[in-house]
Amino acid sequence: MKILVCIARTPDTTTKVAFKDDRKTLAGDNIQYIINPLDEFALTRALEIKEAAGGQVTVIHAGPADSEPVIRKALAIGADEAVRIDTPADDSYDVAAQIANYARQENFDMILAGRETIDFNGSQVGGMIAEMLSIPFISGVSRLEVNGQEAMMDREIEGGKEIVSVKLPFTASVQEGIAVPRIPNMRGIMSARTKPLKVVAPAGAEKLTGTERFELPPARSACRMVDASRPEELAELLNKEAKVI
Amino acid sequence: MSVLVYVEAWDGPYPKSALEAVYYAGKTAALLNTEAVAVSVGNAPDDAAASLGEYGAAKVLQAGGERLRSFDSRAYTKIAAAAAEKSGATLIIFPNNYTCKAVAPRLSARLKAGLITGVISLPEMNGGKLSVKRTAYSGKAFACCTVNTPQAVLALQPNAITPEKQDKKAVVEKLEMQFEEKDFSVTVKETKKASGKVPLTEASVIVSGGRGMKGPENWKMLEEMASALGAALACSKPVADMGWRPHEEHVGQTGITVRPNLYIAVGISGAIQHLAGVNGSKCMVVINKDPEAPFFKAADYGIVGDAFEVVPKLTEAFRKMR
């Protein structure tokens, strides 16, 4: 079983969102970066499947050299090898094309990614990879079992869930519920240093979109407190003042 | 040249997000001096499809058939691509729902058309280049993005635009599709739909519970409040992780991002990761017995008190208002 897990690098979940004067870079001197939490769910499930069925888990990341600590963390958690495509990840089509390009040479049984990143919230790369490789794509997957050449999944649909089956190979974007992330142990951390991390040059960058700048939402006014003994006052305010009910 | 909008309706009316997307497409078409064409997947009767004209669609291409009940991203992408070609669409709009997450990226790659998801405002054309605002950092910021390609695909956030109706009907046509076996490679074994429930991402009002609820057995009072308001139920991450509530209700940075008109948080302290998922709410109400709960800093209205006393009384007040 050969599994490819796509991982993105994101600022850690407690990072304050504010921007420098260029309105593009996050402000703050010591931003901690992590594996995108939803990609970590994908990696964890991949490792569980590999441990049960045998095989190999490769993680792939599109990003510059300063992403390497985050890639090493994926190796510490248990991935067997890593590939870094040396290109900034600023367009989903480009990232997908680079990953698809690599995957085409390797014959993976499944390609997994988190549903979205917590900073860009694109929900784009997984589906694009599937189209580029002409394989099925299932999104919103919260459960994944593999049996030989067939996979069974729970996927989220409007107002509910579906249990679906598909033959390998396929691409899936996963979400919470699929696995509980693991904390790397000492052995994992030590072995991460020597596991292969291959750096690959990007092939023909084509960026279909760009981000000009970021803006912060307008500040909210202070909270209006209502006395606990008069909740009907709150109902009144929501109706007459806020006009939301 | 036209603006294509993708909508879907099976066994019922078009959902709110579909009407918002049609309205958005209509408004954008007007900006570009062209018309909006809808591609409707499902089994909406012709007169329901024609009513999309009230929201701005000049024409509706209907793609149906029982085979399509089984959602496969390849078959659906083929439909969207065929409709785009038939209508000469330079811009394709999707409501940002689960179908979109599987289809829009495929379509974007297939047409090599730049994709922008999480869109929250109408686009602008600057020297032939499309630029639009979208939500980013799990709702904590907005990003102004541009598309470099002549064709673009946009996925509109639910509740980002309020549709207005006009007295117009759309022309309805059938979209003939030829499928291959490989277009249907995902087999649906079972569908579990919570009927009558408002999907969280489209809800106008949400009632949400956290650890302060003390246990899953106490959720009935939140269900009653939600019922009184016609609201959807949500929860915080710890509550989903502990199994008190299903993961599908978890709103937050690694869960679902919501943008309702009203978000009522009961017994939730308001950690950054939770706020990320709910920041886009028009109005936030916090009920918590801890006056130091960080959520009060982000809220519009708050009550410091015992949820078990306040919530039932508030529900009663909501009921009286109906």
Can you give me a brief rundown of this structure?
The complex is a heterodimer of chains A (245) and B (322). Chain A has 245 residues and is α/β, with parallel strands linked by helices.
Q: Major sheet of chain A: size, sense and barrel closure?
A: 9 strands, mixed
Number of E strands of chain A: 13
Helix share, percent of chain A: 25-40%
Number of helices of chain B: 9
The helix content of chain B is 25-40%
Overall 3D shape of chain A = globular
Low-confidence stretches of chain B: none
The ordered H/E elements of chain A are: EEEHEHEHEHEEEEHEEEH
Any idea what the radius of gyration of chain B is? 21 Å
Largest beta sheet of chain A: what is the strand line-up?
Answer: 9-8-7-10-6-1-4-5-11
SSE pattern of chain B: EHEHEHEHEEEEEEEEHEHEHEHEH
| Main sheet: strands, sense, barrel of chain B | 7 strands, parallel
For this entry, what is the oligomeric state of its chains?
heterodimer
Q: What is the number of helices of chain A?
A: 6
Question: What's the rounded overall pLDDT mean of chain A?
Answer: 95
Secondary-structure class of chain B: alpha/beta
- Number of strand segments of chain B: 16
